[in-house]
Amino acid sequence: MITDAQVAFYEENGYVVVEDVLDAATLARVRKVVSEILDDARGVTTHNDIYDLEPSHRPDRPRVRRIKKPHLVHPVFREVLNAPVLLDVLVRLLGPNVRLHGSKLNTKSAGFGSPVEWHQDWAFYPHTNDDVLAIGLMFDDVSMENGPMLVLPGTHRGPIYDHHAQGRFCGAMDPAASGLDFSRAVPCLGRAGAASFHHVRLVHGSAQNTSSRDRQLLLYECAAADAWPLVNFTNIDEFDSRMICGEPTLEPRLVPVPVRMPLPPALNQGSIYENQTAASSRFFKVALESV
Ligand SMILES: O=C(O)CCC(=O)C(=O)O
Questions:
Q1: What DSSP state is assigned to residue 176?
Q2: Domain containing residue 124: CATH number
Q3: CB 237 within 8 A of CB 154
């Protein structure tokens, strides 16, 4: 399953890519569901609870940028979390008790799929401790061409960067102000069925997909059960209904981790893409927005 060397790599670098997390049959089944959900975007005029739309979307020629919270859209997305390799990795990286925080599927379509500016997930959802990560399940082969997720190794041990612009949360770091060397970024590459696991404080982003191949990435945000969110807590039944494995707890573990609250909320709500439209500067070029 996952080796001690891979666990050590994650601890050192803040990410690890594991091949063959999903078997071919499961992958085919989930991809079919995704394709049906994307087909249903025909006729949709604006962002809603399910779809975040590309700027060039038209109801008669749908262009979905993200399926929001897929685990609430179709049961297959909860089933996938029972994949044995996936559970093994989660337990090794987060301990025996793990809760789903949220999910999203970035479609990054061939030819125009939007970039995601540099950010740390922690800026969006700080918790009482940082035993929190995101799984990135690759539904397509991911290579340098089709907009892989890029990570800055080791930044999970560094500061929490400012993700505000003009006094409001905007979900993106100012690349110049951060002082980081983005030429050190490493792509998370793999075959369809592979998954990346990245620490909640790791700096990451991705370029526009100008290639002829889609790059669908299903992200599951997962937390140790004793890491409690500092924002948007709903209610205990809903919270505990998201346990992936092990037991819930009423005793959050408090660790002195740096936090900057994502408040006041972003001007443009809905998704990271919308939040980031208010960023004061952009790193990734948008070449083909209106094609
Ligand atoms: O899709 C990607 O490449 C990056 C995704 C990401 O970081 C996010 O949606 O928060």
A1: H
A2: 2.60.120.620
A3: no
Report yes or no on 108 lying in a domain: yes
Q: Which atom of ligand 1 is nearest to the CA of 217?
A: 1
Structure tokens at 201: 């404080």
Whether 37 and 73 have beta carbons less than 8 Å apart is answered as: yes
pLDDT above 60 for 291: no
Is residue 284 assigned to a domain? no
Taken in order 94, 138, 51, 114, is the CA torsion positive or negative? positive
Q: Are 117 and 276 in contact (CB under 8 A)?
A: yes
- Structural domain count, the chain: 1
Would you state the pLDDT for residue 288?
65
Cβ neighbours for 69, distance < 8 A, ≥ 6 positions apart: 49, 50, 102, 103, 104
Q: Is residue 217 part of a domain?
A: yes
Range of the domain at 36: 4-276
Structure token pair of residue 168:
């409001």
Q: Which of 204, 211, 216 to mutate to test the pocket of ligand 1 (most atoms within 8 A of CB)?
A: 204
Q: How far is CA 204 from CA 26, 80, 237, in A?
A: 28, 24, 32
**Has residue 283 been placed in a domain?**
no
pLDDT digits (tens, 9 = 90+) for 180-220: 999 999 999 999 999 999 999 999 999 999 999 999 999 99
Ligand 1 neighbour 206 (Cβ under 6 A): yes
CA of 105 to the centre of ligand 1 (A): 9
Q: At what angle do helices 4-13 and 84-94 cross, to 10 degrees?
A: 60
